[in-house]
Amino acid sequence: MKIRNAIIFGAVAMVLSACGASDAGTAASISGVKIPESALADALVDISDEVSAETLNITEAELTLEVLNRLVLTEVIRQVGAQAQVTVSESEIAAERSRVIADFGSEAALIDAGLQQAIAPSMLDKVFEISIYVAKIGQKLEPTGSPANQNTAFESFLFTFIEGADIAVAPRYGKWDAARAAVVAPDNPLVNSPQE
Question: What is the pTM of this model?
């Protein structure tokens, strides 16, 4: 199953890259920062080594969309952080990971929980990074506000950033929906339902 999934993702990537694109080899771009197709492929293989899309009750196209969305949001939040003059260090990410591992009881349990949400083991630290950014930006914007107020302030700041950002997704993978701050399914039904 692991080999089969890797072959499927590799074959789909090869076929789709032959379809033509304005920026070949780029899955998405956020204000000039490119997310290469290789990063998307690596994350998909990382997941497929552990769990199949079928096990997650989603299609391979939906899994690809989930993974790309996380990659795009990670870069968006990093840029939002830079605009807010907020940084997140490796030590903060490591501390958050340790805290969450303690909550789950073991690293294996954390990895399993991540896989059930289509989060590759290699992307777990990015999830923690986003979480820390959201908290720190909210605290900076509303230092005396409640957690709910801080979250509202963050969301307002995020959508203001998105309005002025140049965010593009390769059409074969999907499209950027600014109103939802998410990558959504492409219009092409052949991409939505790839043949195995």
Answer: 0.81
